[in-house]
Design brief:
Blueprint: E1 7-12, E2 21-25, E3 28-34, E4 40-44, E5 58-60, E6 63-65, E7 72-73, E8 79-81, E9 99-102, E10 105-109, E11 135-142, H1 146-154, H2 159-162, H3 171-175, E12 178-183, E13 188-197, H4 201-206, E14 213-222, E15 226-235, E16 251-261, E17 267-275, H5 282-313, H6 325-350
Antiparallel strand pairs: 1-10, 2-3, 3-4, 5-6, 6-7, 7-8, 9-10, 11-17, 12-13, 13-14, 14-15, 15-16, 16-17
């Protein structure tokens, strides 16, 4: 079950151009495109004439032209041209979805268009600051439920086991971390401190540490499925864990995790890595991206195997442990939003 009246990520803005893209979001077929004038359109991927996917068509000045019989739909879903026919019936219209381009992302509203409020889209200024946070984008299709991926992001003890050779390091460092979990105005935030520990391989590659370091990890979940990450390390004893101003000169990264449900058992993963330690070195940004990409592919293997197993066995008898606090709070927030939306729909139906 999905939350509908909320903003989801439909794609990276740079990837939406004049070639139509077929995408499924919350189990609905959608075609994304950009007109020659730069307007982004998001329509149901189905021509109202014979039901052919519009993603097989062509983007023209007026909108998207169906590749079967040439009907043209504009970005509002209104048919503006039927070849050989002057009269266009009012019923020749398809569903359009509100979209907003912001912070290098295309956001889409899957619910009631009248409720779509762009001010509710989260801010991520890192994507507009290449000077201080040079970054690269990634995109994966994951064969797993979207909440399994967010579970993975909110439980960081897996880093030492799944990502030993890159961003993880020693497993004992992670399970012994000092952890704080707290609700925010919109979601939940997990803060983890790992004082006086050895830096993992990716950190050592990026910064010449003197020896042991103080590590921090901050992960903030924003519904429906975005996680904002700030991780890093500074030489041990410099006060980086108690004063953010003491983190300069160490290893610092920002990672954006945007997860969009595709179906009940698959999701779309939009992510970026931002280099906050050697900003003038493009190779450092590339190396960071490669290491994080390797780590995320390792996560993908785990999540897809988990999805297959849970489809067979269910998850009613799974147990929770102390490190699941952030994950459990995240799930509760999503459940509350779904319940609230269901109650609103029931009330509207009975009115």
């Amino acid at each position: 079950m999905f939350i509908r009246n909320i903003w989801y990520i439909a794609g990276w803005a740079k990837d939406i151009g004049t070639t139509p893209i077929a995408r499924r979001i919350c189990n609905e077929p959608i075609v994304l495109f950009r007109t020659p004038k730069g307007q982004v359109g998001a329509l149901i991927d189905r021509c109202c004439h014979r039901g052919v996917p519009l993603s097989l068509g062509t983007v023209i000045e007026a909108g998207i032209e169906c590749g079967y019989h040439g009907l043209v739909m504009d970005c509002s879903g209104t048919c503006v041209h039927i070849p050989g026919q002057k009269n266009i019936p009012a019923s020749t219209k398809i569903r359009s979805y509100p979209v907003v381009e912001k912070d290098e992302l295309i956001w889409i509203w899957m619910g009631d268009p009248k409720l779509a409020d762009p001010s509710q889209i989260l801010d991520y200024p890192v994507h507009n600051d290449y000077k201080n946070w040079p970054h690269k984008h990634g995109f994966y299709r994951i064969k797993g439920n979207y909440q399994l991926l967010v579970d993975n992001l909110m439980d960081l003890t897996h880093l030492g086991y799944v990502h030993k050779t890159t961003i993880g390091g020693d497993p004992n460092t992670h399970v012994s971390a000092q952890m704080e979990t707290r609700e925010t105005s919109r979601g939940v935030k997990v803060i983890r401190h790992m004082p006086n520990c050895l830096p993992p391989p990716t950190y050592r590659k990026g910064v010449p540490f003197a020896g042991h370091v103080d590590r921090w990890q901050e992960f903030e979940f924003v519904p429906p499925a975005t996680v904002l990450q700030w991780s890093g390390a500074a030489d041990a004893g410099k006060g980086a864990l108690t004063d953010e101003n003491q983190r300069d000169g160490g290893f610092s990264i920002r990672v954006f995790h945007g997860v969009t449900p595709e179906t009940e058992s698959t999701c779309l993963y939009f992510w970026s890595t931002a280099n906050g330690y050697r900003q003038d070195d493009p190779q450092a940004t590339e190396d960071l991206y490669n290491d994080v990409s390797t780590a995320f592919r390792e996560d993908q293997v785990m999540i897809e195997a988990q999805q297959k197993m849970l489809e067979e066995t269910g998850e009613a008898d799974l147990v929770s442990i102390i490190h699941d606090r952030g994950r459990i709070q995240m799930r509760r927030i999503v459940d509350r939003l779904i319940e609230h939306e269901n109650l609103q729909e029931s009330a509207a139906a009975s009115a």
